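> tool_call: predict_assembly(chains=three)
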Amino acid sequence: MTDEAFPHVVERTGALLDEVRARRPRVHAITNAAAQTLTANLLLAAGAAPSLTASAEEAPAFTARADALLVNLGTLDAERRAAIPWCIATARQAGRPWVLDPVFVDASPARLDLARLSLMGRPAVVRCNADEFAALAGEPPSPASLQAFAARAQTVAALTGPVDRIEDGARGVAIANGHALMARVTAMGCAGAALVAAFAAIEADAWLAASCALLALGVAGEIAGETAGGPGSFPAAFLDALHRLDEPEIRSRARAS
Amino acid sequence: MTDEAFPHVVERTGALLDEVRARRPRVHAITNAAAQTLTANLLLAAGAAPSLTASAEEAPAFTARADALLVNLGTLDAERRAAIPWCIATARQAGRPWVLDPVFVDASPARLDLARLSLMGRPAVVRCNADEFAALAGEPPSPASLQAFAARAQTVAALTGPVDRIEDGARGVAIANGHALMARVTAMGCAGAALVAAFAAIEADAWLAASCALLALGVAGEIAGETAGGPGSFPAAFLDALHRLDEPEIRSRARAS
Amino acid sequence: MTDEAFPHVVERTGALLDEVRARRPRVHAITNAAAQTLTANLLLAAGAAPSLTASAEEAPAFTARADALLVNLGTLDAERRAAIPWCIATARQAGRPWVLDPVFVDASPARLDLARLSLMGRPAVVRCNADEFAALAGEPPSPASLQAFAARAQTVAALTGPVDRIEDGARGVAIANGHALMARVTAMGCAGAALVAAFAAIEADAWLAASCALLALGVAGEIAGETAGGPGSFPAAFLDALHRLDEPEIRSRARAS
């Protein structure tokens, strides 16, 4: 990315945190059972308004009143299978962004099929880790393969890991913030994808929204890693840090390039 | 309420906390997925014995051995839809109190219908927020509309918010305890409704049980708000405070009128 | 047990903690809704790699790639009922150990029936409390009844409570570590059974695996009980302690006989 893009991501992150706190966007999250509480609490800590209903009868009504939708493919039970296509259709018809988190598509052929069908519904952002990307794209992640995937699927590819990488086919940024304990707490990535959705509810440039969200999460994780006594106390420290996070803190800690 | 009623609520709250710890009432809670862990942990912290099974095949058996039932309409999947009427019938037949928490009835017509049907099963207490009350009662909450609703439905209306208000048609109390962080943690209200059920298992006067439970929750929340570093560390601080809560602490902090 | 067995359990516990951290065994856990997050976080804190999917369509594929399986009978909904037999069959065919946690079989006849059927699938270990054992075995727990049950079902009986007792029909050990707050946090036992599965993935002697896991959990609980401010802050302190636990700490605290 150019020299100009990097400070833009840093500045926009602080502004987006402020705007989420002021405007309280509604995010409807269909997510896996183990991620539900952390996802709702992350959205609340950031100032957004979560809902989590997954039943096919009700989730479309919740999606219709939301400003963004998150679809996480974990816990793919009958209710969620039936609900997901209707929720995607509802978000698209309302012109609201939605984020796809293809959890564990590398572990289940049925889930990989559903992820590929879901991609046809044009998610604004796909958030995944290296194994999930490889299963979905058919090749391991690299700046080039992420760009190609993003261009092909007309989405933003947001790869999370020790270094996050966000590509939309034209622009790319790598974010080196974060902490090793984030990998020792379940659903950190799943919950983080909800912040991507909250930011996308406000920032129409989905690449910028995803980049800012992953930067905010990485910085909050870094702060939490300095105070937590281990993986047990990490989630509380992380949510506390995200709740307080501001532009000066982000500016002083950002390691994006 | 009269001058006599207020000290009675304060005194009875400390006594009910002691009685729950001594008698360990069983509370069966059919509640939403994101609230299950906090609900169980709140009941355990208070000294009660929770169970959470939601399947239609098993939940009535759990209800039959419980001292009170909580029905929360979040996560209204097929299993819960099928289980709820049988559990309500079981509690009524056994003469045990049950508490209705009509979560998000303002967001889903299907849920509002079910809440109205459930009201026919005569919950001892209905716990809701302002939006949920307005959807259920057809008018915004006020002392008069809460009283009218309670009288009409032959229940106790327990409205939670910055100030809680508990009305049974004849008596009313407003509780101003609590902390702003309670609104930044998912399922605090849902879990709190389980304490209403635990108190109702012991105190036959459902208005008194609900008033005392909301006072205890508000005071515990206030204490937690003074020590927590943010919304992430709030739930642990809240449960710790509830676990230790006693009559002198309640007396010194109660703001009821 | 003989004098020789006791130091062996203590030594092996430290070694197994190291091996789990180095080898990161995959544990697939079908467990109840309220236990999912804590179970995943306990496995991650110990260094193992959890997965939790419960749907019949996907859970067998996750089991096939796992090193051990945990089947907890809480939240026995239609998805889990359908998934459990296929997952057990998958684990057996792959020669992987599986652990049965017959939660609340004392409260539901349907669940007791399923637990008895599941026993025919030869779990390596059955983890239960006193009430669950009594329902399953038809008599209250004692060293003799645990031995008889273990011999009859060709499994290891791991009874948890103020004192844990692990019997395989020939060998027995009693572990007196732990803390009273462990009974005031939901799903501590359920999550602990996942560590039994993680240890069984590495240690082929299921009695030794279960004994070491319960010793590690008891010592971590004891440490957490010394620092936690109550049941709310206990789970974080417990996971932090388990994450740091090592052989010298175990040796100095073990109360096994």
